[in-house]
Request: fold
Amino acid sequence: MKATSKTTDTKDAARKPARKIGEVSRLSGIGIEALRFYEKQGLLGRPARTESGYRLYDAEVLERLEFIKRAQVLGFSLAEIARIISHKHAGQSPCAEVRDIVRARLQEIDERIRQMHRYRKELAAALDEWEQIGDLEGHVCGLIESTTIKQALPEKRVLKRGRR
Amino acid sequence: MKATSKTTDTKDAARKPARKIGEVSRLSGIGIEALRFYEKQGLLGRPARTESGYRLYDAEVLERLEFIKRAQVLGFSLAEIARIISHKHAGQSPCAEVRDIVRARLQEIDERIRQMHRYRKELAAALDEWEQIGDLEGHVCGLIESTTIKQALPEKRVLKRGRR
DNA sequence: CTTGACTCTGTATTCGGCTACAGGGTCTAT
DNA sequence: ATAGACCCTGTAGCCGAATACAGAGTCAAG
Reply:
């Protein structure tokens, strides 16, 4: 992957080259529109601008974007990430809050994992059983109808698949 | 809340009483609008109607709705559920297809669980470590920045929390 | 000096799974 | 005969996280 920075190849190194949005997009793998969107959502602050209004990002933005991506992967919403970042920028450490969020998230994850294990077990068991008995007449599908999954619909659609 | 069914109280029992949408909604816990929405999505077929156009559901609809709920919990999208149901109604057993879907879903779930375990472990480790070293100057938050979570962003937002 | 790549703002659209509302018609108890 | 509860259709909106597009301005190379 590592898109070697062609544009700013010269004698950069520790020069913190100001990058335009397209380059940042390429380097980060985040679409241009998404970058502007993040800015609107308060995730990126307002970058410097050229006279003509082009955004100029410094090198840090890439770290910031990595931060955002990681936080997303960890299950933070953009709003939460924005909150964390803005706390930081209000001068105070957001860490206490982050810690709280993280602890809550840990519990959620645990619960989620537990649920998924149940789903997985029940789904597998149902598939198994159902493969043995074959089709039942008059049922849409024994597989689903016969499952003992009742579990009071935990939170409705916890599984939520990613786009496929 | 519990609006005791006044309408069909008489001497029902095993009479398979035709139910109007409101009652079905109450009995199933699914909103009226959602029921009509499901119908539009092909999940419920077209129910009988009174002369004046009111939907009249038979008792089966409740099973059907349970089926739908369960399938949703198992991670099926409404579109998939609709497909399953319509295959059934096209005369053929949808089971082969369901089985395939289920098998694929099982693998997805496994992968998802694996991911979540990684997340969980890394998140916990980071929290731990970070609680020991405290705040780092110049960082938004060590917690997230210092995590070793790189894992190539599996599928983007797999965690997706339920509505909170 | 023109072409083409890039950028700007602002608005609209997508996806899934609903929920809400407007503006009617119907049914039943009083 | 009328209030009020119910039902109808059809359309619009919501959430989150983008993506797409229109119409305009900018910039560097040929």
Observations:
- The beta strands of chain B are 48-49, 55-56.
- Confidence is low (pLDDT under 50) at residues 1-14, 146-164 of chain B.
